[in-house]
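Work Package 3 committed the consortium to producing structural models of liganded targets before the mid-term review. Because experimental data for this complex are still outstanding, the team generated a predictive model from sequence and the ligand definition alone, so that downstream docking and mutagenesis planning could proceed in parallel. The input record is reproduced below exactly as it was submitted to the modelling pipeline, together with the SMILES string for zinc ion.
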Amino acid sequence: MPDHSSPEDPSARTAADLAYAAYGDLVKIDSALCKKLAAETALREPTQRRVDQKLNIERRSNVEALLAHMTGQAAPKPCKNCHKGHGPWTQCVVYDGQMCGSCTNCWFNASGSRCTFHENNHQQPQTLFAATVTSGANLLFSQPTIAQPSPSNVNLSTDVNHWGLSESTKQLITQTITDVSTFSRRDRFLARIEAAAKELGMRIAEYEEFLRTPEGIAEQNAALDRDRAQNRDTQATEASMADAPADDVLT
Ligand SMILES: [Zn+2]
Ligand SMILES: [Zn+2]
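The resulting structure, written out as tokens with the ligand in place, is given here.
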């Protein structure tokens, strides 16, 4: 097998070359991630498990999966889904730092969260923080009142570099901003719902964490005491009302 991995190799073909060769004009390279991946040297052909399977390659995340499939690293041990023979291509490939850690087969058709390599499926300490930032960015950019999202996206993408964030978090934010800028209105509504759900989950988790701290326990106890005191007052009021004639209570 010829070595396509050397950038100096004049016969080296980019991921874009191979993508067009395999899937023709259906391949639309428009997002920042697609452009980046498309320009890289292809390390492997996209070999389908079922040659006759028609892939929905018009979907942007599927183009990302395709391009990353050709340029990423083959997993030493395939994820559970690839192991079971799921996903369009024969190999389990991960592109480091992209697609939330999921393999390209799982990322295809937006099933990345089901991949055993997806960052949410490992309990990494950074994951929670990263998820907050993502949902924040989603909320920010999915406001339907923003008529022209592109200029602010560009500014924010540049700003991200000055926030002193870790490389993985930076990539996550940049990726999310890029994703959202290419969303249709429907996608944006759905993204807002998803972001709000994540945000709610995070807040509940934070609240529950707080309740386990000494401060939280003290406040919780104080609140319970107040409730009990209020209940006593209510019961006292009800008791005095019970003394009144029945007609008066009903009217
Ligand atoms: Zn896989
Ligand atoms: Zn997978």
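Reviewers should note the following from the model. The first helix runs from residue 15 to 23. These observations will guide the Year 2 experiments.
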